[in-house]
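Dear colleagues,

For the upcoming journal club I promised to circulate an example of a predicted protein-ligand complex. I picked one with magnesium ion because it came up in last month's discussion. The inputs are reproduced below in full, followed by the predicted structure.
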Amino acid sequence: MKKISILGSTGSIGKQTLAVIESMPDRFAVAALAAGTNLDELTSQIARHRPDLVSVSTPALADDLAVRLRAAGLEKLPEIQHGPPGLIAVATHPDAAILVSAAVGVVGLEATYAAVRAGKQVALSNKEVLVAAGELVMAAARAANVDLLPVDSEHNAIHQCLRAGRPSEVKRLILTASGGPFRKTPLAQMAAATPEQALAHPNWRMGKRITIDSATLVNKGFEVIEAHWLFDIPPARIDVLIHPQSTVHSMVEFVDGSILAQLGPPDMRMPIQYALTYPERAASNHIALDLAKLRRLDFATVSTRRFPCLRLAREALKKKGAYSCVFNAADEVAVEAFLDRRLPFPGIAEVIERVLARAPRAKIASIADVLAADAEARRLAREEIANLAAKAAVV
Ligand code: MG
């Protein structure tokens, strides 16, 4: 029996992780759960999975949760913590063999880093961990001899394909991208794109920010950065290909010209289960891809004019140091402004580009360095959004 801790248990990946755990009751159990503010969901998760420890974002929520659990008649309450120390306690719980890192944002970074250093196997779904602190986290993983298993469908696919050859036999990684809702929108119309249009993702149902990040291809930029750190492949050998059906989750080309692809339905339970059971494969009754029903699989190159953010991600990675972290922070602030209708859709790329140009060169030697670079990039992004709004008002 392996025990699992989850950061972000009430989010989409957290809930699907619990579904996978529930489908394998003789294999997995829950050690500890961390959630943000969704006490309704967390209360029912605690009643079902009986974790030893839980954490929420604030002391007030921790008190509220205790009241709810007593009212629900639980004979034994879990230990309840809160805030960043609570996240770290969940991530490093002594009973947990695996941490599922699925909190959204830099909030999960410090705790995930602590888990890696504590020697936990990590199923990684938090983008910020490798985008903002890839060098630091990978060095810690190597030092602790820890497996970082990607839950993201693309990296999970590449992880699977890489098992077919030696590192020296890999020619390139090919990340597939759906292209999002604006794959075919005339460029002239992109300036008027609304949050509603950008939120209508064709294949995957996800949170708001990642859906916008899929429309700009910022998300694919993150994935290039993550793939570089996870698989130790130079960025020039990581390509992106538009694949509207999202059935081929990604591919690896080997030096002999063979290309291996991993296919599956758009169901995150598959990569989650892979990460939890690795290096074994376990039977699943839930997931099946009906190949005969696939009419076609299309592939196309990415237009850099349509998707400037992908170029910006590569530039950030090339500039090294804190720039990938800056790229992430600037994007998060810009996406928020776009969703609030304070910034037009093409303004997201503009803000990122300006912040990358202005952010000071910084070295990342600790999580504190990451958080400082993140805060400064957010400040610069807010400034640039105000500048763009002032300019638009004059015109
Ligand atoms: Mg993905």
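Two points we might discuss: The chain has a mean pLDDT of 95. Residues 153-308 form one domain.

See you all on Thursday,
B. R.
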